[in-house]
Amino acid sequence: MDCKIDYQAPADLLKGRNILVTGAGSGIGRAAALSYARHGATVILLGRTTAKLEKVYDEIEAAGGPQPAIFPLNFEGAVLKDFHDMAETLDKEFGRLDGLLHNAGLLGRITPFEQYNPELWEQVMQVNINGPIWMTQALLPLLKYSADSSVIFTSSSVGRVGRAYWGAYSVSKFATEGFVEVLADELEHLGNIRVNSLNPGATRTQMRKTAYPAEDVSTLRTPEDIMPTYLWLMGPDSRGHNGGKFDAQPAKA
Ligand SMILES: NC(=O)c1ccc[n+]([C@@H]2O[C@H](COP(=O)([O-])OP(=O)(O)OC[C@H]3O[C@@H](n4cnc5c(N)ncnc54)[C@H](OP(=O)(O)O)[C@@H]3O)[C@@H](O)[C@H]2O)c1
């Protein structure tokens, strides 16, 4: 499991690329959107809270980045038609997609399985895996138009080794890693689309704080610290890597 934390991205790494980031309004997704824009990408900011997306939009504009776009979407309740409508809009606006970072995620509850609420379980599976899968299906034609497109699914250490009480979150991340293997193998012959999974590792965000409320956050890397791997995997330097499992930071000793 490869980690590129020391990667130095050229300033124009993503110049001319259209990249969609889900969950772009906060946490790791916000940092990725800002970082991709800083490296030249036109970023499509997708998320459920428009006000947060607008703030990121303003930050990109203030920094002189390429004009981004906002696409409000709540994975809960989103159906296939929503993803196809979205693909149609993006096709009209941009004509192709060169990158897709599936980052939006829901923790659910950390609780014994016997007490896990089935509705919450479904919600977590919808946001973390089912929604992203159908969104990917709808966007595949746009990704195929690109000469070099990168699809990144966000995993977690509990998507590689199961952990007690992590319930639907852990299962959704296992499913994510499995889906990446299936899709990567299926698209391998095309040569212009790569699909990989990326585990950010313990990162200072709201989700991490909810999962570990007593943790000293000063010991954690920030979303900005882990961006080198996000840039490497999105940009052309990772060409040829397909179906891989990557880490954005070295595992804690
Ligand atoms: N932080 C860590 O230590 C860590 C470790 C391993 C994996 N991860 C993974 O990294 C990714 C980002 O996590 P984070 O730590 O940055 O979490 P976060 O701060 O909680 O951000 C999650 C993002 O997902 C969006 N989101 C949640 N539900 C959504 C829905 N129904 N529809 C659309 N967007 C939705 C949120 O939107 P709002 O802002 O509008 O709520 C937010 O932008 C997740 O996939 C997570 O599983 C994080």
From TrEMBL:
* Keywords on record: Oxidoreductase
The signal peptide stretch is none
Q: Which PROSITE patterns match?
A: ADH_SHORT
Please name the Pfam families in this protein's record.
adh_short
Identify the InterPro entries for this entry: NAD(P)-bd_dom_sf, Sc_DH/Rdtase_CS, SDR_fam
Q: Gene3D superfamilies in the record, alphabetically?
A: NAD(P)-binding Rossmann-like Domain
Gene Ontology MF, one = oxidoreductase activity
Q: Does the keyword Oxidoreductase apply?
A: yes
Regarding protein family, the annotation reads: Belongs to the short-chain dehydrogenases/reductases (SDR) family.
Identify this protein by name.
YciK family oxidoreductase
Q: Which organism is it from?
A: Halomonas urumqiensis
Kindly list the organism's lineage.
Answer: Bacteria, Pseudomonadati, Pseudomonadota, Gammaproteobacteria, Oceanospirillales
